[in-house]
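Figure caption, in words: inputs first, then the predicted bound structure.
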Amino acid sequence: MSELDLIRDGFTGIGTPRSDVILGVGDDCALLEVPAGQQLAISIDTLAAGTHFLADCDPALLGHKSLAVGLSDLAAMGAEPAWATLALTLPDHDPRWVAAFSRGFAALAKAHGVSLVGGDTTRGPLSVTVQVHGLVPAGQAIRRSGAAPGDLVYVSGTLGDAGLALRQLLAGTPADSFARGRLERPTPRVELGLALRGIASAMIDLSDGLAADLGHILAASGAGAGAEIELAALPMRATVASAVQADGDWTLPLASGDDYELCFCVPPSRLAELSAAARGPGVAVTRVGRIIAGSGLRCLGPDGDPIALGSTGFDHFPDRQAG
Ligand code: ADP
Ligand code: MG
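Bound structure (magnesium ion present):
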């Protein structure tokens, strides 16, 4: 057997065995059974060494994160994770690296009932591509495009933790271990995403920061949808809040990447359903603002006055506000 054959063998039987996998790793294609009445939700992400992670990072954490970012996309559609495929480009044959990577990948796959059904392994600069496949009852996927004036805007969890960890790592200052865990080992909010079917009018997962990602909801929801965010309402842990306090720069909760929380809109008529649905998934949801007639994003300070974020460290904000 060649080295690559050995690597492929190592990717057999990863994750949860599922009865809808007619044929998994080992043939030219996987064969999968999509249940009647369900639609397939598909998303693919590449993590490249040097761009998305450092080549010498912990391979088990990389295995976790490469699947987590895909599961976060499924969560943001209200889709239930089912299958994944994995394309690995590896600079050399390192069985220990591959074993650690697949351990991290497999643990998260098992936790979400996902079966790894195929992939590709090639030699080259280190890069990981994961495609995830989820199931959603026909017509029930939660798109970015459904927000309407009057809807309330919510986020799950806390914002800015991963951004703080990245800032600490780059500065070489002692890392806040919770924040570092949020950067390196994000938790996709799959259960919450499923609970929001029939409740959220629009949803997105936060990978580029609330300002940009809520901007995607506004753009998709069309002319007439703007948003107001109350800065005082943004959910932050104490270390993030004090970093914001220190210099008045709201970049951490608004414009740093890798939060992997959900941002969603809820019509006022569905608030009672939201509080019932939000009890189960084990992550807090916080109202941070509302959709208003107009366009673009406005941020309100503690007294309810609009704040020009351009003066607090943002370059890219004025464009969006003008929008
Ligand atoms: P082919 O040449 O027909 O594309 P390969 O030799 O690339 O097939 O792969 C053989 C089998 O191993 C296929 O079922 C493929 O899906 C699986 N496979 C290869 N690499 C991976 C990987 N990194 N993770 C999961 N399955 C893989
Ligand atoms: Mg191949």
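Residues 120 surround magnesium ion (ligand 2) (CB under 6 Å).
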